[in-house]
Write a structure and sequence with these properties.
Elements lengths: L2 H23 L6 E7 L1 E24 L4 E6 L6 E2 L4 E5 L2 H30 L6 H26 L2 E3 L4 E3 L9 E2 L4 E17 L1 H4 L7 E6 L2 E13 L10 E7 L11 E7 L4 E7 L4 E3 L2 E8 L2 E12 L4 E6 L6 E5 L10 E6 L7 E5 L11
Parallel strand pairs: 1-20, 2-21
Antiparallel strand pairs: 1-19, 2-9, 2-13, 2-14, 3-5, 3-8, 4-7, 5-6, 7-9, 9-12, 10-11, 10-13, 11-12, 14-18, 15-16, 16-17, 16-19, 17-18
Helix pairs in contact: 2-3
Length: 368
């Protein structure tokens, strides 16, 4: 073959291929396969989680109101006591003698008054009204002195003011203790309080009577339930937070004052919220968005997220409507010019009642 014939053959082949190349360049790009799921609603119970401390509902430092030698201690360290139990007694020999003396004086004054009355019943003019008033006053003064000595004797005894458990005694029998020095402390352990603080943002949703769930490290598998009984009327100036108390039943006395506790407080229940799968949400810096399918066209939609539901879904605060179809797989390849081929439509879970943590960020998948 001559050189001219070879050039002619190549040129002819190129001319034959050119229309095919032009046709290939004009072919529409294929649709991107995706799966979608409709935006659904759930009744969301919002909650907050904080760290608190177990405190006694009632506690008291038990003291004598008099100073003397301890004569009797009726309980041991750590014993449980009932309201009205005598915990300890001081040597009250002198106080008892003063009470006996006051009792005798009162009895004598009453007897003298009664005899005078009997005499006047027989001889009305035997005594003047003024003399009778003086006798009555002697009885009144003797009665007052008797009550005072009776009250003084109680200063030598410690009586349990409520049911509870004792701590360690600071003095033993035979030792001298001064008035107002604590001999032992008493804690009421059923029920107990859990004390914690919430943010100002959560204050508007917190209410007395809401349920709390509490766990402690000593019993990690056990959850204790309680009820909010106090919300501080003012924000703490140093922390900027609001103190909350909740009462917890403690019949087995396993919760001890001073324990740290993880507290979960239910804020709201039954509030309908829009939710989508977390894997549908993409991120572009601080923006969160997802793809919504209308026909065969995807639409990029910016959204504002709420909390996670802790089961793969996230609350949508703004940007979507119920029933809209959001892309849950294949969205990474989408652009504003793409067309889609919907392979299947997933249905949301049927469980419509969930609890969420107010601190959740809601984003499970990010893209640049």
């Amino acid at each position: 073959m001559t050189r001219y014939s070879a050039y002619k053959t190549i040129a002819t082949s190129f001319l034959c291929l050119a229309p095919a190349m032009v046709m290939a360049n004009n072919v529409e790009p294929s649709a991107i396969p995706v799966t979608v799921e409709p935006v659904s609603t759930r009744n969301i119970a919002q909650k907050i989680e904080e760290v608190g401390k177990i405190t006694a509902l009632d506690n008291a430092n038990l003291t004598f109101s008099a100073g003397a030698k301890i004569e009797k201690i009726s309980f041991n360290d750590g014993d449980a006591v009932k309201k009205g139990d005598v915990i300890a007694e001081l040597d009250s020999t002198k106080a008892k003698a003063d009470l006996d003396k006051a009792r005798s004086t009162l009895n004598l004054a009453k007897t003298k008054l009664q005899r005078t009355r009997d005499l006047l019943a027989k001889q009305p003019d035997a005594l003047s009204p003024q003399d009778m008033d003086e006798l009555q006053e002697e009885v009144n003064l003797a009665a007052a002195d008797f009550r005072q000595q009776e009250a003084t004797l109680k200063d030598y005894t410690i009586i349990a003011p409520f049911d509870g458990r004792l701590t360690t005694f600071t003095h033993s029998i035979g030792s001298h203790i001064d008035a107002s020095t604590a001999l032992v402390s008493l804690y009421k352990l059923d029920p107990v309080n859990v004390t914690y603080a919430i943010s100002q943002e959560d204050l508007g949703m917190a209410q007395i009577g809401q349920t709390v769930a509490v766990t402690v490290s000593a019993f990690p598998e056990q959850t204790f339930t309680g009820e909010v009984n106090y919300i501080a009327p003012a924000v703490d100036e140093s922390s900027g937070r609001v103190e909350v108390h909740a009462t917890i039943e403690n019949q087995e006395l396993v919760l001890a004052p001073g324990m740290f506790a993880n507290v979960s407080q239910q804020l709201q229940s039954g509030k309908a919220q829009l939710v989508v799968p977390q894997n549908a949400v993409l991120a572009n810096n601080e923006q969160r968005y997802l793809w919504v399918v209308e026909g065969d066209q995807p639409q990029r939609r910016r959204v504002e997220l709420g909390a996670n539901t802790n089961d793969g879904y996230v609350i949508i605060k703004q940007g979507l409507k119920k029933g809209e179809q959001v892309v849950i797989t294949g969205q990474q390849k989408l652009t504003d010019e793409s067309s889609v081929n919907v392979l299947s439509s997933q249905q949301p879970e049927k469980n419509l009642s969930k609890s969420v943590n107010n601190a959740g960020n809601g984003t499970n998948k990010e893209a640049g």
